[in-house]
């Protein structure tokens, strides 16, 4: 299969809810095989943007091309090639891990066996446990497994580690890294700077529906006027970039 | 087959139902408990013994000749009090000379029955000889008792409640959890999603008709006189109709609270009006046309006739049409309104 050079192209995207402008004319380009991070505080428009790219929300204006196709004409084919994790899905509590993945696997024409995905996300011991009995980290890994079960070319993750403890976050990062190494594309949203620095090849910073900065984490951090770099301890972070651009902290609820 | 999405979705429906003990209770046990409770309360065994009071020893002696009377010998005063309090159905007092006075409420059927029995006993004790010898050949008639009336009504209510509430809850709950939205992010077909609910309803229908009919037959000898195919066709149509109504009710809601309001608004009038517990004929003539347009009335009327009188479904074109119109209108509207995320 030939992978188009660009996995995702977004042009002039706009979306308003009643009187709130959630996304105010953004352009994005995600290259095949890279991990792209959409960084920003709550309410910046990250989820609206990613859900438009996922074909779940219709934009008011703008053009979205996913894996060389458009949602309006190629919905069925596109769904087979994407893996999607939504921000706060609660899967059916009464179902077990096994049963849930068998259900999701049945929707895709190709992909790994259920047992293989379970092994990948390290839920073997919880195979027969009901979802209501899983911890937050386990639920999040199951949600990722549901997104991986169709062997997607492009993976969308909306705040995959929000609310998890540090160990669970690191476990999830490892899984995303494994997926990335296989040459697949990842688009994720986050409001954690360390997550973006750890996982993302390129990052766009969003605020109030606009993209206010874009580049590799290194480029962005280098772009801020920091006091002369002292060895290690005071290296700039994406947090510094965000503060420099907006005068606010990322984690502040806007 | 095992990996077909429709099979997996149907399994999910089944698992969610089976692993919810309350849902199983309402679907299976509730109609049985209701039938037992109401059946026992209203069955009234054949020829029950009636309590009467007699205010003289000789009258009491005469009345005791009838084994269906339970005679208490009380003073005239105490007998009237007992009558007023409903402890006896009839008070028998000596009148002037050898006359007898029967004191009872003639609007109370026990009172009227007791009066006839008591009079027969008194007259025989005074020497009356019946000119014609009579003996009883008892025929009990299953099919016309209250429990017979009740079972088809309970089946109808069961199908309606489970379809409207069960389906509505499952759909709204999945939407509230954003599970519907998550499924829409996969290649899942919407048709499969809706069909899985239909399959689940059809499986449950076996329980919804089977349990009350089997229980009625075993515990009370409630007859099934019509053709089983008629019962199945009629019940499948009713289940589809109420499922479509459930789908319509659940087509937009995001909260269980908003759903339960709509469910009650839909279900309660039919509980009362559609002749579940007593004949809908008791309501005034003006509302009869409205009552006949309700889907539950259509089902229960046809089901009672088929089940108890062995009628053919062919005679119930009007009821079938009523159910079909509700089915088509609700389903088309539900599809138009349905919120998939």
Counted by DSSP, the helix tally of chain A is 9
For this entry, what is the oligomeric state of its chains? heterodimer
What's the count of strands of chain B? 4
Q: What is the SS-derived class of chain B? A: mainly alpha
Give unreliable regions of chain B as ranges: none
- Major beta sheet summary of chain A: 6 strands, mixed
How would you describe this structure to a colleague?
The complex is a heterodimer of chains A (254) and B (341). Chain A has 254 residues and is an alpha/beta fold. Chain A has nine helices and nine strands. Chain A has helices spanning 46-53, 71-81, 97-106, 114-120, 136-148, 166-181, 193-199, 217-223, 238-246, and strands at residues 6-17, 20-31, 35-39, 61-66, 82-85, 154-158, 185-190, 202-207, 210-215. In chain A, the strands form two sheets. Chain A has a six-stranded mixed sheet, sandwiched between helices. Chain A has a three-stranded antiparallel sheet with strand order 2-1-4, covered by helices on one side. In chain A, helix 3 crosses helix 4 (114-120). Chain A is globular. Residues 229-233 of chain A have low confidence and may be disordered. Chain B has 341 residues and is mostly helical. Chain B has two domains: 13-42 and 145-337; 50-125, Periplasmic binding protein-like II (D-Maltodextrin-Binding Protein, domain 2, 3-Layer(aba) Sandwich). Chain B contains 13 helices and four strands. Chain B has a four-stranded mixed sheet with strand order 2-1-3-4, sandwiched between helices. Chain B is elongated, with a radius of gyration of 28 Å. Chain B starts with a helix and ends with a helix. The model of chain B has no long low-confidence stretch (mean pLDDT 90). At the A-B interface, helix 2 and helix 3 of A face helix 1 and helix 7 of B.
